[in-house]
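Supplementary Note 3. Input sequence used for the single-chain structure prediction.
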Amino acid sequence: MKLLVFQLLLGISLSFIYGQAAGQNSFVLGVVDEIQSAILSEKRILNIYLPEGYDHKDSTRYAVIYLLDGSADEDFIHVSGLVQFNTFPWISRIPKSIVVGIANVDRQRDFTFPTTDIDDQQKYPTTGRSNQFIQFIEKELQPYINSKYKTNNSKTIIGESLGGLLATEILLKHPTLFNHYIIISPSLWWNNGSLLNQPGEILEEKYSQPTVIYIGVGKEGLAPSEPPRVMEVDANLLAEKLMNSKSKSVQVYFDYLPAENHATVGHQAIYNAFRMIYPAGTN
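The predicted structure, written as discrete structure tokens, is reproduced below.
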């Protein structure tokens, strides 16, 4: 009987605590926003995490992390947790940041450029519209976020797998869209690895925007391509390509995580990326 009373009181206490924190008996992680895209001809859902202390009335402005695969049932919740953890005052590893999770509609369509591979064209008939998605990010999404939320000039993109392919394409074709790139297990096998041969402004001596790049990959083996490619090898080739940039403004970190596979690498890689991109004392 005493145990039952204790459990009841504990439940009431916890309910009261959470109720005080959220204003009701619920736990609120972020807000759901949306943007009507003329470029994509559709409405896109945005999951937004606002950092502790965010107040639209004060003058504080925040870094923004743009998260591909940012649906609530994809990566938004666990990545927002990593951001919150790394911005706790007693940790303070990264700057307090807004997380913009871009919910998916058709990731194969949005994250891939056109391929000349006939088999892939037949397997994935909606692919090849990454150019439109990049335009959406540049011309609609970033201006919308900057107008509605209190942002500064720090912009990070996180992309894994096909999202990593898109982040790599942006890096090589539109590098100034972001100044931090977290690229995890990128699907560089797409179109027979053609992106590895892509020239880019970021490789040239005249490129002057400070840009930090993290590339992480697990022990993942063969990619779903013909002829087969090895994910770890392609990620390493990308890192080497970027490390050979003639620009003094480019910093590259390569991280091999042999204990992780394609399904598990994301969370650990993002944690490692925060630690590498923001060494102790730089935040």
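The chain is about 35% helix and 20% strand. Residues 1-22 have pLDDT under 50 and may be disordered.
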